[in-house]
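Feature request, filed as a ticket because there's no other form

It would be nice if the structure record came with a short human-readable summary line next to the tokens. Right now we just get the raw output. Example of a typical job, pasted below so the devs can see what we mean:
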Amino acid sequence: MATALARAVAELARHLSWQETARHFRLDWKSVAAIVRRMVEYGLARRRRRPLHVLGIDEVSRRKRHHYLTVVYDLERGVLLWVGEDRRGEALVRFFTPLGRRRSATIQVVCLEMWKPYLKAVREHARKAQILFDRFHLVQHLKRAVDEVRRSEMRRLSDQQKAPFKKTRFLLLKNPWNLTPTERERLSTLVRWNTPIVRAYCLKEAFQLFWDDRHPARAQEHLRRWIHSAMRSRLQPFNDFVRLLRAHLDGVLGWTRLLVSNSVLEGMNNRIKPVSHRALGFRSVANFTAAIYHCCAHLPLPAED
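Raw output as currently delivered:
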């Protein structure tokens, strides 16, 4: 197939589903898939190999029932680097091995979630890198603790006692600046109650102040006092969250020095989702991976004839 036509097909496939692209050019769907895969191979072979300093690692859901892909992102330049099947440590080994020791040694920061297989692979292959736990995932753990307290209390309270707290899940988990005037008014009424649910909410908001302090010593002291308060609260989900913090304290405190987050990567994941939805899901991992590279990695295409 002529390069000009293949390039035109590839460019349209970045915006439409492969089925729609096939209809537009009156081609078979498999022909479009073959073109995209070939263009991805071309682009990956010819993209510039720049030194890597700040990486972000996360997973994206491929299908239901815990089918995942691992994605690696250059957070310094905002570029998708690599996509691999599953979320086991072996997936990251397949990323690091081709890099070699020299390129791996240039990595200064790796931002990721608290997932042991990822951590093990990073510590083995990027030994000089500062591990930084992503703010987004850490806050997710914190919100989960709040929700566990709420659900536990709702099971324990009588119908009369639980009435003020009905339909408050998202109210308690929302950031205060995102609340509507009606929600703020209802929240101001709720926090007057001295209940475990309110204590959990106050602990959540007190922890969030950690992200705003740019002075490492003050931030560390704030976190120390917060941990003390959380342990005294006698709320088991927060005790579990404290144990998680203590086990990974260096990676959490690194935030105050580096101010790096996987928010860029979360944005990339939001770009990956429509890639899957456009085709109502990909049965083949190879096709889904090729589509992600093609739409999200800014790979070069062949020049027109």
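Something like this underneath would help us a lot:
The chain has two domains: 1-134+261-305, 135-257.
Residues 135-257 form one domain.
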